[in-house]
Design goal:
Blueprint: E1 2-5, H1 6-11, H2 13-21, E2 26-30, E3 33-38, H3 70-77
Length: 81
């Protein structure tokens, strides 16, 4: 594995990033002492995409869903619970 000093790494960052992206890991050192190891990222595994409408037909929404519990809520707000 190649080792580059920090000055060289700063000067040639884009080339070194391309090198790592191709799968070639390398080490960056300061004053001859290894500091970091640069390795390529692994490709993330693709997620399964859940399409819109995947629950279509699984349940029904009542026509008065926006008024459900209205009487009880009104009673609670008026202190008549």
């Amino acid at each position: 594995m190649e080792t580059f000093n920090i000055h060289h790494a700063k000067t040639h960052l884009s080339r070194l990033v391309e090198k790592a992206a191709r799968g070639e890991a390398f080490v960056i050192a300061k004053a001859g002492k290894p500091l970091v190891k640069v390795v390529p990222l692994e490709d993330p595994t693709p997620r399964e995409v859940t399409p819109f409408g995947f629950l279509k037909g699984q349940f029904e929404i009542p026509e008065d869903f926006d008024r459900m519990g209205e009487t009880e809520i009104q009673a609670m707000l008026e202190g008549k619970s």
